[in-house]
Design brief:
By secondary structure, the chain is an alpha/beta fold. It has helices at residues 3-10, 13-31, 45-52, 64-77, 91-95, 114-128, 142-148, 204-207, 223-232; strands at 35-39, 56-61, 82-85, 99-104, 129-140, 156-160, 163-174, 177-187, 209-219, 235-241, 256-263. The strands form two sheets. The chain has a seven-stranded mixed beta sheet with strand order 3-2-1-4-5-11-10, sandwiched between helices.
Length: 266
């Protein structure tokens, strides 16, 4: 199974979207958002929700496997939305200008190519937005991870048609970045506990467990750096939240940060 499908299994989308939807409804209403770009859209679950609300949505992602999953998800939901293959810094060239909002959600932004890539990305965001247009950034709180040298995110367990699955994220710290090892453990259907396998075994053929791992290095983007970069790119009225209930951001404690800013009217 491709990592794109793994992603949809790992995330409890019904619960997540129910939690996040009121935040986006409020923000879109406050700032008059109709035309939206979701960059790093992944499997398009957010883009599909926004389209169901009646917004014009363009989903952009560099992964063809993710876009294939996005097309399947859109078809299953009975909606049509524009999906474009591309990455950060390419929006103006790919989708034009005059949008009301650019969103990058679910920890997509740290895939930028260093701090220079961050500045290029935010400049591109500003270029595709109308004056007063909105940017929403949602990502892990890197300051908490780095300051606490957090080594592992909470494990996720899912029962799936392919068998029991455990999703792990193990972290290491490198120059100006955080290295994530994404590990998926899958136990074949029917390979659960029995009298024959109740004791320790190392062979996957005996236990039914198989391991797949991939590695990704993310640019370290603590919130203070993001605030400075947004201002440099021409954004103002910057707001930050610790969750989708709108609680003020706590740099030392919150798992994630949500940043909302407006492109200058000039």
């Amino acid at each position: 199974m491709e990592p794109a499908s793994d992603y949809d299994q790992m995330v409890d989308w019904d619960r997540r979207l129910a939690r996040e939807a009121p935040f986006f409804r409020d923000v879109f209403a406050r700032f008059g958002v109709e035309r939206v770009i979701d960059v790093g859209c992944g499997s398009a679950k957010h883009a599909i929700m926004f389209r169901q609300w009646g917004h014009e949505v363009v989903g952009v992602d560099p992964s063809e496997s993710m876009l294939a999953q996005a097309r399947e998800n859109a078809s299953a939901a009975g909606v049509s939305t524009t999906l474009v293959e591309g990455g950060f810094g390419e929006l103006e060239r790919l989708v034009g200008t005059g949008y009301d909002a650019v969103l990058t959600l679910g920890n997509g932004l740290p895939h930028v190519d260093g701090v220079a890539g961050l500045h290029a990305t935010l400049t591109d965001f500003a270029a595709v937005l109308r004056p007063g247009g909105l940017v929403v950034l949602h990502l892990l709180n890197h300051a908490r991870l780095i300051d606490g040298c957090v080594r592992m995110m909470p494990a996720v367990f899912r029962e799936t048609p392919e068998g029991d699955r455990v999703f792990l994220k193990v972290l290491d710290y490198v120059d100006d970045g955080i290295m994530f090892d994404f590990v998926t453990l899958t136990r074949e259907p029917g390979a659960g506990p029995s009298a024959d396998n109740a004791f320790a075994h190392d062979d996957p053929a005996e236990t039914g467990w198989h391991v797949r791992a991939r590695r990704s290095v993310h640019t370290a983007l603590p919130a203070d750096l993001l605030f400075e970069a947004l201002e440099k790119a021409g954004f103002e009225a910057i707001e930050s939240y610790g969750d989708h209930a709108g609680r003020p951001f706590d740099r030392s404690a919150d798992e994630s940060v949500i940043i909302v800013a407006r492109r200058s009217q000039v």
